[in-house]
Specification:
Helices cover about 15% and strands about 50% of the residues. The chain has helices at about 5-10, 50-75, 145, and strands spanning about 30, 35-40, 80-90, 95-110, 115-120, 125-130, 130-135, 135-140, 170-180, 190-200, 200-215, 220-230, 230-240, 245-255, 265-270, 270-275. Strand 1 and strand 2 (about 35-40) form a beta hairpin. The longest helix has 22 residues, at about 50-75.
Length: about 280
């Protein structure tokens, strides 16, 4: 989506009170407390059949309506929002996707003056099942911040820096990132280890990250910029529950998917699983 062109088109409607100007939402004006505001919209129906295509379309529509309704509740007189979603992976009835929204919002003062603001949301993960839609709030961190003593949920445990140790290697972008999703109703503590396994044709076993990560109930944590040297890596996630240790493990090569996180770690009622993430094309 061309955000500048989008805002230029939207900006043409500023000052034209009562005219839709092609903007979604302005035809649904309602009066409240003597002031006009955009009406809230009903959320989309969950698809009868959950497929990669239907889940992607549903999540994009859900994200768009959610963003619209937040602005409507805040008294906006016009809202123009676009949303996009990418299907990530599925296991049984559990389908995961990532959505993002962007657009413009207009507010009006008691004197009739109008202002326009830009909306641009970060990508957020969704879980969709036949009877549940869960949007997970995300907390984002970078491995560099943790190594420099910044805010974090754990330590490297003596692990080397996956970027600094690559001084003689080819750097790639985006770097390795891991997204941890907790779709349960309880907080979870996971141990995350990332090991460099291949440097060209040479096998190695260099730990570049080893830390504990706390993930709240029905939320997610993204750990970005773990390593940026071309090669192969192994991501291992561990969790202990009632004395039983669950583990998920996956091999990933750099360069990988064109997005912040390249790997998903999912904690659900069955334990821990790991997944490759596809490239993400947002708005």
């Amino acid at each position: 989506m061309d955000r500048r062109a989008f805002l230029r088109r939207a900006g043409g409607a500023v000052g034209s009170v009562g005219s839709c100007g092609g903007l979604a939402g302005c035809a649904d004006l309602v009066d409240g407390d003597g002031r006009r505001a955009v009406a809230e919209r009903d959320p989309p129906d969950r698809p009868d059949e959950l497929t990669a295509e239907s889940v992607g379309e549903y999540v994009a529509a859900y994200e768009e309506v959610r963003a619209h309704n937040r602005q409507a509740a805040a008294g906006a007189v016009e809202v123009s929002i676009d949303a996009a979603a990418t299907f990530d992976h599925a296991s049984g009835d559990d389908h995961y996707a990532t959505a993002q929204h962007a657009g413009s919002v207009y507010h009006e003062t008691d004197d009739g003056d109008r202002s326009v603001g830009e909306l641009y949301g970060d990508p957020v993960p969704y879980l969709v099942t036949p009877d549940r839609t869960l949007r997970l709030d995300v907390r984002r961190r970078t491995a560099e911040t943790d190594r420099q003593g910044g805010e974090g949920d754990g330590s490297d445990g003596g692990a080397s820096d996956g970027n600094d140790t690559a001084s003689g290697d080819e750097r790639v972008s985006p770097p390795l990132g891991v997204r941890l999703l907790n779709v349960t109703g309880e907080a979870r503590e996971l141990g995350l280890t990332v090991t460099r396994r291949e440097v060209g044709d040479v096998e190695t076993s260099e730990t570049v990250a080893d830390r504990g990560v706390a993930v709240g109930p029905e939320t997610a944590v993204e750990l970005r910029s773990i390593a940026n040297a071309r090669g192969g890596y192994r991501v291992t996630a561990r969790m202990e529950d009632d004395g039983i240790t669950g583990q998920g493990r996956i091999e990933v090569g750099l360069p990988s998917a064109d997005r912040g996180p390249n790997v998903d770690v999912v904690v659900d009622g069955d334990g821990v699983s790991t997944w490759h993430l596809p490239s993400f094309e947002g708005v």
